[in-house]
Model the fold of this input.
Amino acid sequence: MKNLLITILALIIATSLWSSCKKFVEVGQPKNQLTTEEVFADSTDASAAILGTYITMSSTYLGLCSGASTLYPALSADELYQTSNNTTNSQFYADNVQTDNGTINGFWGAGYKYIYAMNACIAGVNTSSGITVAAKRQITAEAKFVRAFVYFNLYNLFGSVPLVTTTDYQVNSVAPRASVTQLFTQIISDLQAAEAGLGTNTGTNDRPCALTAAALLAKVYLYNGQYAQATVEATKVISSGNYSLQQNLNSVFLAASNEIIWQLDLAGVNYTWEGQTFVPGSSGALPQYVITPGLYASFESGDQRVADWIGVNTVNGNNYPFPYKYKNNASATDPTQNYVILRLADQYLIRAEAEANQGNLADASSDLNMIRNRAGLLNSTATGQASILTAICNERRHELFCEWGNRWFDLRRLNLATSVLSPLKSGWKATDELYPIPVLQISADPYLTQNLGY
Amino acid sequence: MTWIIEPQLEYKKTTKKAMVDLLVGGTFEKQTNAQSETDGYGYINDDLINSISGSATQTSTDAYSDYKYIAFFGRFNIKWDGKYILDVTGNRDGSSRFGPSKQFGNFGSAGAGWLFNEESFAKDALRFLSYGKLRASYGITGNDQVANYQYLSRWAPTYYNYGGSVGYTPQDLYNPDFTWATTKKMELGLELGFLQNKILFSSTWFRDRTSNQLITYNLPSQTGFTSVLENWGATVQNTGLELSLNASVVKASTFSWKSSINFTFPRNELVSFPGLAQSSYSTTYQIGKSLNEIYGFRSAGVNTTTGLFQFYNAAGQITENPVSSGSGKFNDYTDLGNLDPKFYGGWQNSFQYKQFQLDVFLDFKRQMGINYLGQVYHYPPGNEYNQPVAFLNSWTTPGQKTSYEVLSSQYGEAATEATNFTHSSGAYSDASYIRVKTISLSYSLPSGVTRKLNIQNLRFYITAQNLFTITGYKGNDPETQNFYGIPPLKTISCGLQCTF
Done:
């Protein structure tokens, strides 16, 4: 009898213990982090989810959106060479990038990390019950703008890439490469949605507005050969009155510059990683990256851009020109400069090229000359469609040198890569104009195919 | 901060025939890790260094995590008649590292042993046997060794701000479904003792099968991350045979020799992997092969005309443009074998003669490993690094037969082929070795002398570590296989030990 009582008592204790055990192993969430539901509970937090990606973009040392898109394509093209002995960089300069190159894997990984965050924002805002319809539209538009921007850059580096628009890893991990048409359709529809959903200019230009979307859309249309649409979008930006060409070239890249359509704020430092990389520590120091003799000699005499945007250090009697659009290296913190991503001068050249392709040669020349005159040069003497297009390409080379890979991308889209680069780079192959898909990606996604020539 | 409560209740009873041991208990554990850090910069006076408000700028970070673990277990052990042993355990564990409804797992094991030398037939027929035990066990164990909170879809504030506002970044891919990883362990053992246990032999065969291992599953970066934590659907099997023999070879009044040797034969195998061909591991693993299998090109030496490395393609033809694996196909990659040891072990010998003692320990392993060429060509020669002397024989003139390709200062074909070479059979070779790990010789003063000196013991000794290695390995050390690192040091020490 006594034993039975003890057994029953033990059972009661055990059962009550058990129900509280389930409670015991609940820990809630870490105090310094939020769950997805909390992030998208209100518009302030949801907006911070977009800012997080800007901060990552800007604070990453020589990341996809903080200098690497300038440096490596400039080495691959005919803009820069390096004075140090860095194997990874050598591969870019020799246009013999290996599939296990860590830098290209970094491009790929960073791009999709930003795309993931934007997809998560779009999905999170969509299902949120605490965000107003107007705020949903604004945040979704901003996320789509950033997503389109990243896809456009990945396309320029790698060609068509997998199109990922959800956060579901089981779907995304087996995504094949989209066709170029699919990719452009998505980029264009995202930018159209962004243009429709984003508000007017906020003044600081460090977050996109409707005109920022129009500016990027103009560029995308140009790359896609849709010249009429490119003209329309570029005109929206140029004639908005919101932006103006800075007549003093040294002011173009200042944070307060009126020419800037979109810039990324610096995070944690007072200098851009580009400035830190390109501007030597002292006037006698050998620059790490030097402007190629070909590019340096190609500027017309009197071109003010040589004086203002190229620095020259003399070492052992030799002159070494280096990019000087960004003035601050790690030891200088004045003037205030952010990462300039889109600026008005590019819009004039986009419209000039689009107009010329449509046969509107006078309008094309007029836009081209805006940029030439601002650089202290006389009007272009080019006549006829072909030579005006050549003059525009040449102007892009000088206006946009060492800026976001513009030269490298232009050579490819204008089918000039082989004629320009094969005399300069031994072992040049036509397939070198695209970087290889990184080996880690090719082996992790069985449906991902390699670019030709690798 | 951590606290653990482990209540236990044990019941023991011994009768003439049986020894029974019953244990029930539990574990309640909580680990809290809270951390906050404030850094101050820009002090202009050292006297203020202990005050945070004396700095011009301050930055703060913090971290926080909670871990809770709960377990209930029971164990029943019985030894019957001094011959039969039975051991059964069962437990239910809960861990906060898993999501709701995934927190608890049930595990258990059963084992039995038979001391057959106690049986009458053995006592009669196997008189030379002084000890004989046969044992078998089977059990399922659980594992929650992953980071906390992984089942939540988390965002963290950024360290920097953007125009004065804080930002959030996603921390992981959302997978709330992972739970306890379980391993099924099976073990059979035979232990024998001969000649009053002067010779002891033991052998163990084991098989561990893990079928829902918790791993950071590799993903292509297009998913936004490079991995996700999940229970891996593949079944991985580790089997092995462990043999050991201890013998007291000579035991005389002034001389003795004890020797023991052990061998382990391990084997790793991927038993099954549903959906392997469509997974991130389609060109990393193959069913029936080890997880450490190496896939690469078959090396075909240096082309005597171009001076470049060449390889065999999948069709067996020689090429300078082999295609590496990718997109779910092995292409020109073939199975080059695996880096698992075929066997390894140790052999210990102790000799004693009067006051002298000599101990010798040998360590041996049979395996394949990465050789020095595989490491050197990883940084293409031509860059400013130290190069092996062998590269003086690098290819220079057409017709020259050599194992080292042409050197080049350009990042061109030679660099591409060097990269291919690091993924080829040329980068791997035999790395088996026998190493004299320790030799130690000592002399102790006889007790008569020590007593006079009024000390307990006085001992002189000389010990050598890693004295020499027998190996055919191409590189500086087959054990560490790091051409740029320091191999195990050869150390010789001598000393005097005095105990009062």
In short: Residues 341-500 of chain B form one domain. Chain B has four helices and 28 strands.
